[in-house]
Amino acid sequence: MEDKNIRVFSTPTCVYCIVLKKWLDEKGVSYDEVDVSQDEEAQKEMVQKTGQMGVPVIMIDEEVVVGFDKERIAKILNIQD
Prior knowledge:
CATH superfamily: Glutaredoxin
Structural class: alpha+beta
Strand order of the largest sheet: 2-1-3-4
């Protein structure tokens, strides 16, 4: 898997965020976690790029995936699930 800049916008209470991060960890994918409940600037950035407030949002380089779309994320990262 080639190196990609991966950011996960999440909140501590979001069940899908927890599942997404666990899945990424299991796959050995490195990512930066951004808690949008604590980081107002990151929250603004997420809303600007997606047009919505829902989490999780995963940014892989310049590609944005809203929600835990496992198939799409695996395809972008070129990993087997």
